[in-house]
Amino acid sequence: MNTLTTERPIEQQAIGQIAVDLPGATAIFRRLKLDFCCGGQVSLGEACERKGLDTARVVAELAALRRDDAAPETPDANALIDHILTRYHAVHREQLPELVRMARRVEAVHSDHPDAPHGLAEHLEIMEAELLEHMEKEEQVLFPAIEGGSSGLAGPITVMRDEHIGHGEHLERLAALTHDHTPPQGACNTWRALYAGTAQLTNDLISHIHLENNVLFARFGA
After folding, report:
1. CA 131 to chain centre
2. What ranges do the domains of the chain cover?
3. What is the pLDDT of residue 64?
4. Are 219 and 67 in contact (CB under 8 A)?
5. Fewer CB atoms inside 10 A, N or C side of the chain?
6. How many C-beta atoms lie closer than 10 Å to residue 101's C-beta?
């Protein structure tokens, strides 16, 4: 589950630090036009007050980003699929467009920096396209077949497993481009938030693939 690094109420925390500690927060801040980069030293409460925003509503939006990673205990296949769709498929669709946007910004603004992640936005776009296609196959073909009790699932499951290997290779490239998700000393809040997000994407995708390969698919002898 996502957690912030301080026990202070979130409205008292610096907006820039929230952006780094809570992947997904940048999309909310961008939509609300809250400056988490250059103006990131301001507390969330003060930033909301300056913009005339309801702080409680913003806090509630941020709270919704803290996700429970626990899969259902001794679940049946349908419960597992519901968990995968909600916890991973929906989350990947939210994560990747925002990471691409931040990567483009970091690459442009810090293009002369020796550690600038040149090629990161393009790589994330490739990951997004392949993941979207992969998840669509699961949602439209494999998962309904499992829920409907179809036989002969070994072939489609093998295809999904093979594609998972490709996703794993993309994660290795992602780690290389981001120096294992470690921003350089003195990096701006956007850069730090970007790498926090790529680390979260990596953890989520690894957990997602594990749950499918080793729990869901294993039930069908594939």
Report:
1. 12
2. 10-63, 77-220
3. 87
4. no
5. N
6. 17
CA distance 96 to 127: 8
Query: Please, are residues 103 and 120 in contact by the beta-carbon 8 Å criterion?
Result: yes
Three-state SS across the chain?
A: CCCCCCCCCHHHCEHHHHHHHCCCHHHHHHHCCCCCCCCCCCEHHHHHHHHCCCHHHHHHHHHCCCCCCCCCCCCCHHHHHHHHHHHHHHHHHHHHHHHHHHHHHHHHHCCCCCCCCCCHHHHHHHHHHHHHHHHHHHHHHHHHHHHCCCCCCHHHHHHHHHHHHHHHHHHHHHHHHCCCCCCCCCCCHHHHHHHHHHHHHHHHHHHHHHHHHHHHHHHHCC
Cα 30 from Cα 7, distance rounded (Å): 24
